[in-house]
Amino acid sequence: MSPVPDAFDVLYLCFAAVAWTIVGYKTTAWLRDRANADLGLACVMTGAVATVFLFSAPSLYRAFDRLLGVANLAMVFLYSAVMVFAVGAQVMLARWAAGEGDAARRRARTRARATVAAVAVLWAVAVTGFAVGRPDAVEHPRDFSTAYTDAPGVMVFLGLYLAIFGASLAALGTLCLRYAATLGASWLTRGLRVMSAGCHLGLVYCAAKLLGFALSWAGRPAPWLSNGVAPLSASVAALLVLTGFALPAAGPRVTAWRRLRRLTPLWRQVTEQNPEVTMEREAWPGRWPFADLEWRANRRMAEIRDVQRSLRRHVESDTLDIAGERARAVVADERQRAAVAEAAALRRGLENRAVGHVPPHAADTVVVGHGAADGRLAAEYEHLALVADVYHSPLIDTVLTELRQRSAAARR
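Structure (tokenized):
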């Protein structure tokens, strides 16, 4: 086998492995929530994209045809998978554009059924064109569209494929952008925008194929366009679409994992002397390490806050003021200064409680975070992460040294 097909085998099979992983992940989510029709539809559409990548591997393409004894039949299966994606896009469009209420849902179902029926009829015509118009038995896994530009039946097959696929991409890409504009900043919004970018890049694939046909008919064939630019743009477009599908589910988990990773060192420090506040003490034997990330991150934050509340009576009333003054001298960012003050109060409280010291004038609060005050969970996470970042900084050591000296002087 020549080196180039080998390279394409590795490329497309790697893409397929990633795609099928996403399919498995989304299918697992759908099995937990079978009433979610949009999630089930997303599983079908991602499965179609994964199938396209699988059959795009030249070795698998040829092996499939050898098994069934029909040259280039794998192309029919590959493009049929694309049609499944296109039909899924049309059904999704009907559902999203229908509006609310039982009547709207009935209209969406009627429109979806009509779309599925129309595409099924058109695709049956296309496959018939392939069956009667394929002039030879030579395999063309990478140059199918340029090899048969003089075969009318195959051109019917390819023309209907590009028309259905292109129309679905244009409509879905536009609707994704329109829907994203109605949402606030979220992983769903990002996913819709990435999916829209993939759909519009897919139109470049369609345009490159059509232009390649036109140049071939004009006697100026450009195989680099149909067999180079087109599949490259299609592959990148498919990856973007898959990423768009994955982001709404994967994004929050990535965020939760980052939060957990940043909070865990501080959590370990503050709960070491307070194991009673922890629900599950960092022991997950036999558990998938990325399971329940959001719940675990929430627990870390809640347990840190529990320890802080229990320490308030062990913190001198002027701790936050002293820490804030020292931080203002060296830190310009207000959020960093708040983190320094809270970290100093937290360390001082743990230190005093370890020796049983209760100052005569305790602090009213040991919390300086902005997120806790205005209810924004993300802001509170970021604040506590900053507290973790500065917890062992030299500036905190300086503040604690001053507090110890003041406390010793007061006792004398």
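The longest helix spans residues 223-271. Residues 1-5, 281-286, 371-375 have pLDDT under 50 and may be disordered.
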